[in-house]
Specification:
244 residues, globular, 11 helices, TIM Barrel
């Protein structure tokens, strides 16, 4: 399967397709991937309905196309649920509306197995179990692989406070600081900053802050027409809506 974490570590740029869990079946996925080249699929529970069985089925379908699934959890306070969601087959987690290092620390703790975190070992539907490279009982091999290169953890930056605190959020184990441009734009109306007048100003600021870290920036550019603009700025992960 497409090893996103390793590719990021090697400096690759990743392009993801935003998908609706309830509306993307096999014919839809075949059409999306036939017409476009993507590295992963992104689906959401913060603003969209989902059930755990639907999520398992979607991850299994995506695995048939060798496509990892990144999943945005419903709420910041659900960081304690990260291990549970990963056990359903997800290859990456996005935590929305993160403002404090405490939340980022909890996300890292729940995302990784010991000794890096406290994620519990188990789950028949985990990424790469059964259909992938690992048998269900390969605990040591699986946990070592996951901790080193198995999945991606995104922390979503959606306020001026988070932008200014980017270095503290980019702790070891956080792969991406991902931008939520809609909420950030709304926050900027009420929390002005002399150097941060636009979302792009915020993106540039965070990229600069992360220069000496292992964390990269993800941006929802939505359309391929703006892809190169953000790549030139230094964004390493982009999220787009597949063309109809």
């Amino acid at each position: 399967m497409n090893n996103l974490k390793k590719r990021l570590q090697e400096g690759d740029t990743l392009i993801g397709a935003a998908t609706n869990l309830q509306q993307t079946g096999r014919p839809d996925l075949e059409r999306i991937l036939e017409k476009n080249t993507y590295d992963f699929l992104m689906t959401d529970s913060q603003h969209s309905p989902f059930t755990e069985p639907d999520l398992v089925s979607f991850c299994q379908l995506a695995a048939e196309f060798s496509m990892p699934v990144v999943f945005r959890i419903m709420d910041t306070k659900q960081a304690y649920m990260i291990g549970k969601y990963l056990d359903l087959g997800i290859g990456g987690i996005e935590v929305p509306q993160v403002n404090t290092p405490k939340v980022a620390a909890e996300a890292v703790e729940k995302f990784y197995y010991p000794p890096l975190g406290i994620r519990s070992i188990g789950g028949n539907f985990r990424s790469q179990i059964g259909m992938g490279d690992f048998a269900l009982n390969d605990h040591l091999d699986y946990t070592g692989w996951w901790n080193q290169s198995g999945g991606l953890l995104w922390i979503q930056v959606e306020t001026v406070q988070a932008v200014l605190g980017a270095q503290a959020l980019a702790r070891s184990g956080v792969d991406c600081l991902s931008f939520g441009p809609a909420d950030l734009t709304h926050d900027m109306r009420f929390n002005s900053h002399p150097q941060l007048n636009t979302v792009d100003d915020c993106v540039r600021h965070v990229i600069k802050e992360l220069e000496n870290t292992d964390t990269v920036v993800c941006f929802r550019n939505f359309t391929p027409q703006t892809r190169q603009k953000y790549i030139d700025m230094g964004v390493k992960v982009l999220l787009e809506i597949p063309p109809a």
